[in-house]
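Re-run requested by the PI after the first attempt was lost when the workstation crashed. Everything re-entered from the original request form. Ligand of interest: iron/sulfur cluster.
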Amino acid sequence: MKGWSGRYLYVDLSNKKFHYVSLSEDVLTSFIGGRGLAIKLLWDLNPVGVDPLSPENHLILAVGPLTGYPLPSSGKMVIASKSPLTGGYGDGNIGTRAAVELRKLGVDAVVIKGRAEKPTVLYLSCDGVEFKDGRDYWGLTTKETEEKLEKELGKDVSVLSIGPAGERLVKYATVISEFGRSAGRPGMGTVMGSKNLKAVVVKGCSQPEPANRDELLKLGAEAYRKVKESPSYEFWVRQGTMATIEWSQKNSVLPTHNFSEGVFDYWEGIDGFIMESMKTRVKACPNCNMPCGNVVKYVTSTESGEAELDYENVAMLGSNIGLSPLNKVAHVNLLADLYGIDTISLGNVIGYAMELSEKGLLRERIEWGDYAKVKELTRQIAYREGLGDLLAEGVATMANKIGGDAWKYAVHVKGLEVSAYDCHAAPGMALAYATSPIGAHHKDAWFIATEIRIGRFDYTTEKAERLVWMQNVRGGMFESLVTCRLPWVEVSLDLDYYPKLLTAATGYTYTWDKVFEVANRIYTLIRSFWVREFIASGLKWSYEVDLPPTKWFTQPLTKGPLKGMKLDVDGYMKMLNHYYSVRGWDERGIPKRSTLEKLGLGSVASELEKLGVSLK
Ligand code: PTT
Ligand code: SF4
């Protein structure tokens, strides 16, 4: 077998044992890697209905057959598990040297089970696994942890770690690497914390040999050249994702005051041009020639420092909570990275608390844009102190605990807080959030730009069809290759490179039909996982789990060019039903038996039926 390593490493923290497990050619060609492999392993290995924070839940670190090879932006990996925030499938994608090193371990994935008796650092190398005492690291920030591990083990190791938030099981704690890369919005850092796992250190030795090295090198070099020749290249390396602040404001989708509006009065204080004026350097993930990690130096009246900024972080910790200018936002962003908290959920829970306070549904007074309060709440969340203990549970649990009308202002899908696009006037993007396989995240479909091009306010079946295509490319193909999707999204690298590169790496012919078949299989298995876990945990499953936040249907925009706009329920349901039929799922959003069988998932159908799910 070429391109893949053909096995995964299984580590049990409870008994400090590890072994290698072979992966069949059939599994690898059918799921490719990354997210595809992660869901296959979670489906097979996790006990049905397992508590996400119990030792029996598995944490998966997965690379794919393109990871680490010399081709654009290939230094990425997937971290996946059953999510403690949503109770369903969760994952995140991270650009770090750990991805390249993991590939050089000679495995396609690392599967971690159990709970260490005391805080532990896992050291993964080609000699196997070392279970290092992590007590000296427990309590440190992610930066301190990484620096101390590098000092002890050498600069050539790569570190994935959690901060105080992961240790205290904040439900949206993430895994951090290289002081500003973050992965696993739905609590992948929380799962690490529940396992007493402070950090994973990776040091590999050699990459698997590709099937057709010459072809791979030729295609890779050509693709690198095309990236640099793109007309969008120069502006991209200037502003990266931060250019989206201005775009979102102009299109009235910049999340403002807990997703109540799509425009922010002070947007010019947090936009990409301000970022450029503060920028000190740019960071890139491994093997990337279009770096977008914009590092800025910030100064406020109380502190100064360096932070790496992205659109999502700035919109959620800026306009969504009424905070400006960028100096302040950058500091809160840095705190989130040090504590290991997802910035998107953080901006949501704080924005939600501000709105509840304004509406008199929360006793504490928290004003929009109150910088001192935002910093204090961020710390309280990380350490689960005071009000922070409630906010650490995420928006959905906050709504349940607060009760009354609080649910009307809760902005989440399936328990995952919404990322930074307001959808009062974007029905296709609302559908993208609602059907994303991890809860409300834009990773699988940044549909808003397409929607604006093809008829923003329309509720058409065409949108549902295009959405499925986009999800299959982004969430199906890129998440299983695993490479960064931005060369395609931002500088228009021809998508056709990817099936060709995959073919050169593995020696199997991947046509577009074959790639889409794999993507459909991945989406359908993830959906089956959600259904299985909900039913086994006694939760109700219906199309209602695929609805966007109530607020977008009931509380129109009150400002900006789209004042008065809100979503239409009937139009949305028409699109959702068409989405289901394109995917081969029934009107409850459950895969049909015929769909499962067509995708080679017949045993999944039987398992769902055993749980009492009647398949159509
Ligand atoms: C991603 C989500 C995003 S998406 C952002 S900014 W973005 C936030 N970043 C955070 C952060 O930083 N610190 C923090 N404490 N929390 C954060 N939460 C948020 O997490 C990221 C880039 C970006 S920047 C994007 S869009 C693209 N995402 C890709 C993807 O998902 N898949 C893929 N194949 N390629 C991608 N390329 C781009 O990568 P999650 P990263 Mg991230 C400081 O993890 O859980 O998927 O959520 O990985 O290495 O930081 O690169 O405007
Ligand atoms: Fe990383 Fe940005 Fe390059 Fe993608 S484009 S690999 S996120 S630096």
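Saved to the shared folder this time. The domain at 7-203 is CATH 3.60.9.10 (Aldehyde Ferredoxin Oxidoreductase;  A, domain 1).
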